[in-house]
């Protein structure tokens, strides 16, 4: 279980972006993280992912302080970053296979899981295309595929539907809910009020504070 207790986070000497944030990310549900541009959604996801150390308060995983990104990876905390984080000169399939192999899959397992997950995202036809040759939306779906393929215990998805048409947006929302049904705790940063309304819980960021809207 991933929990934040009285967390403040910020960058360098600048004032904190977020102050006194307390929330528990529960397995089996999708928590929508909302707030206007610059409200701190990415900042909070980075604190949950072990990429940003809190100034105050604590981020704990199974009751122990989260040390860093490596510690988060050990606890199967998967981040799908806003900028997709893919290697542009690898193919879509290679991006998944590299991540799966690094996660301990054998090459045949990685190939099988890659094909199955790209299929779920409607990307069979793009498997062998270089990422830099894919459209923005196809790259975004490839990044989601890579995150889903890792089957994390916690899945942090940072505005992963921003470049998609309505059909693909709904497809990804369904897949995130499938992840929660599998038992993962999912946090989904989004600007889209309709998408947020379709999630079990919502945490809204405003002026450096967080308010539980639902859940
Ligand atoms: N690396 C950084 N260094 C300094 N300040 C940063 C850095 N990243 C973000 N910020 C600042 O932190 C604040 C929150 O940014 P963040 O990216 O978390 O917001 P967001 O809610 O994810 O925005 P968006 O919806 O536009 O992606 C902003 O004021 C931003 O300028």
Automatic annotation (TrEMBL):
Q: Which InterPro entries match?
A: AAA+_ATPase, ABC_transporter-like_ATP-bd, ABC_transpr_LolD-like, P-loop_NTPase
Keyword annotations for this protein?
ATP-binding, Nucleotide-binding
Query: Quick check: keyword Nucleotide-binding in the entry?
Result: yes
Note the superkingdom of the native organism. Answer: Bacteria
Single Gene Ontology MF annotation: ATP binding
Per UniProt, residues of the ABC transporter domain are: 2-215
SMART domains listed in its UniProt record: AAA
Name-wise, this protein is ABC transport system ATP-binding protein
């Amino acid at each position: 279980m991933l929990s934040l207790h009285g967390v403040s986070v910020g960058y360098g000497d600048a004032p904190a972006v977020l102050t006194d944030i307390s929330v528990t990310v529960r397995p089996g549900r999708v928590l929508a993280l909302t707030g206007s541009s610059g409200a701190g959604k990415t900042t909070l996801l980075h604190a949950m992912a072990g990429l940003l150390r809190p100034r105050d308060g604590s981020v704990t995983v199974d009751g122990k302080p989260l040390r860093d990104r490596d510690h988060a990876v050990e606890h199967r905390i998967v981040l799908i970053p806003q900028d997709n984080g893919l290697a542009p000169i690898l193919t879509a399939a290679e991006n998944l296979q590299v991540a799966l192999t690094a996660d301990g899959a054998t090459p045949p397992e990685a190939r099988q899981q890659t094909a199955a997950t790209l299929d779920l995202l409607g990307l069979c036809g793009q498997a062998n295309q270089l990422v830099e040759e894919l459209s923005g939306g196809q790259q975004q779906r490839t990044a989601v595929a890579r995150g889903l393929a890792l089957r994390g215990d916690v899945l942090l998805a940072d505005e992963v539907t921003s470049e998609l048409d309505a059909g693909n947006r709904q497809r990804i929302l369904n897949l995130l809910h499938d992840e929660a049904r599998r038992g993962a705790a999912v946090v989904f940063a989004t600007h889209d009020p309709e998408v947020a309304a379709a999630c079990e819980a919502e945490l809204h960021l405003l002026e450096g504070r967080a308010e539980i809207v639902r859940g």
